[in-house]
User: Fold Heavy metal-associated isoprenylated plant protein 8 from Raphanus sativus.
Amino acid sequence: MHCEGCASQVSHCLRGYDGVEQIKTEVGDNKVVVSGKFDDPLKILHRVQKKFSKNAELISPKPNPNQDQKKEQQQKKESAPQIKTATLKMNIHCEGCVNEIKRGIEKIKGIQTAEPDRSKSMVVVRGVMDPPKLVEEIKKKLKRHAELVSQNTEKGKGNNDKDNNNNNKGNKKNEDSDGNTIFSYPPQYSAQHNYPSQIFSDENVHSCSIM
Assistant:
């Protein structure tokens, strides 16, 4: 801060901020003392950097880098969408009800799949959603009774590991005890199959071979 005008700008950008009660500027020492009932001093620092100067630094209290990393990781976890599976009890009388319920629920924002079971009058819904709010939306949009039976949150990492393991199993070649590759017919992939020679084929009687 070079003058009282700079000090006034700093005071203006912090005045009215949540939890800030008193602002004291020291132009000669280039310091601003902020007191109040705010939880995170770093939020005050970020506001000064955004509104006044990017060169602003937090002198006291000293920021804890480990705590900052934990907060960032927690924010990332909270921001990542969680896929949930909810089981709903609904009145399903016929195949027409099945199709109508399936189409109606899958149109709701965040829903990935809806699988109605007519025999049990149950619907398994999967997607990024809040199950209690989903029940209210179904009642409002589909005009049908719905009751939440159960819900759970899927763990994305575990599912990805399972998918990767399944893919690795699917891509693994069949081998015998001596380590020789065994090809099946018809082949899964064209690269695994050597087409049979057409030499002296019944289908191609005019073929020949030069040895």
